[in-house]
Amino acid sequence: MLAAEAYQKLADDGLAPTTVGVGYPLVERMTEAGALACAWGKPQTDIALTVAQVPLGSAGEGTWRSSLAELGYVESGEPVAGSFTGPVDPGSGVSSVAVLAGGTLTFVSAQIFASMLAPTS
User: Fold this and answer.
1) What pTM was estimated for this model as a whole?
2) Are 65 and 13 in contact (CB under 8 A)?
């Protein structure tokens, strides 16, 4: 889901694959719809990254746009085209991002990684 340089950045920053946790209602909905979800964390810290991606499929873009609005995501186009900025996480102070592009919906728990998503076809 991420470009090769993003995986290298995660490794350079000391993040390793971990279990996808709960806490993101959008990720839970996406997982129920068949999303692939991955997570990385830095040992002995609360630094983590969650990424999930689901093909739009039969649900379609309109259904996901409605879900995004319901969950407090606002279309922003930042940091990449098709981005919806999520509510600020009270624990981390960071907003997640959902990207509707290339026939998929992709969730990234940290905005900096939205620009490192691998292109979809």
Assistant:
1) 0.88
2) no
